[in-house]
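Hello Y.,

Per our agreement to keep a running log of every chain we model this quarter, I'm adding this entry. I've kept the format consistent with earlier entries: sequence first, then predicted structure.
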Amino acid sequence: MHRVQHIMTKSKKPNGDKGSSHHTKANGSPAYRDDTGKTATNRTTLTLSGTKTNITPINAEGAPEAAIRLGSNGHILKEDTSGEPAEVAASLKKIRALFVVDGFNLYSGINDTKIPHLKWLDLRALAESVIGPQEEIVKIRWCSAIAENPDKAARHGVYEKALRSRGVEISLGHWATEKVECRVKCGAKESDRTFERRVEKGGDVNLAIHAVLDHQHYDKCYFVTGDSDQVPTIEMVMRTLKKRAAVVFPPNRFSKHLYDISSERISLTLETIQKCRLPEEILQDGFKPIICPDVYKIPKNYRLPNTENQKTPTKPQQRAFVVEHKKRRLPVKSI
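Predicted structure for the entry above:
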């Protein structure tokens, strides 16, 4: 049986008194029309079938008044503040995405490629190239530390300004001295097997803190890192905070532990990084333009080397991990 939808609408008689509960005309002419063109003096004679149907009240001249949207079950669809029916608005809801970037890990991976101009990277453009069509960026945070070398520090300072101009939030760590013991058996005395080196501190901690602190503002978190120190952070984001977590591996960076626990895995290619470079001159209202350091400028007629091997991690044991996990249907998406 076809379902008949009863909707009571008030109308006024010519004398201004309240009329009947049905939207009908005094002369008995049609007062309603559906999508097929069928008309009736009241809604009770219009049967609904198939999928969603519009039934439109019409005035004395036959012009449509306000349309009433009906679902396949015959119920009127409620509308939200955006003007879209509730079931349509729900399907259009965007997934809020947070980007947290391990700046030193990303820098080191690009530095290993020996292509300096890739360091002039626009993190917002990169984020927009990574997210899905139903996702929107709510925040990008870059966690790193400014280099101690004066020349590098100057370039990093310029890069920091460029990132801020693109709306990237920045958390800076510091550098510290760390004692390292040489593990190579070379016959040296034990006292000669220990040396000191400068290491970046605070970047991974800042990344973890903000991934947790900002949890109310995102549905999915992208971790741009290949550092397995972030495994506990991702576990907390997924298991405790009930959020989705994707790992974006920089070039030449990979972690089996990150690969195992994340819900999505993305491997950055050199082509994508080059397409996402910042402009070499960034204009600012009321401020001096930000100029790309000469070291980061792209050479004329430059062509990237063959990067087919960038689609999966380059080291043999890392490729073996990918092959193994592909069998378990845990692929790495290359962008």
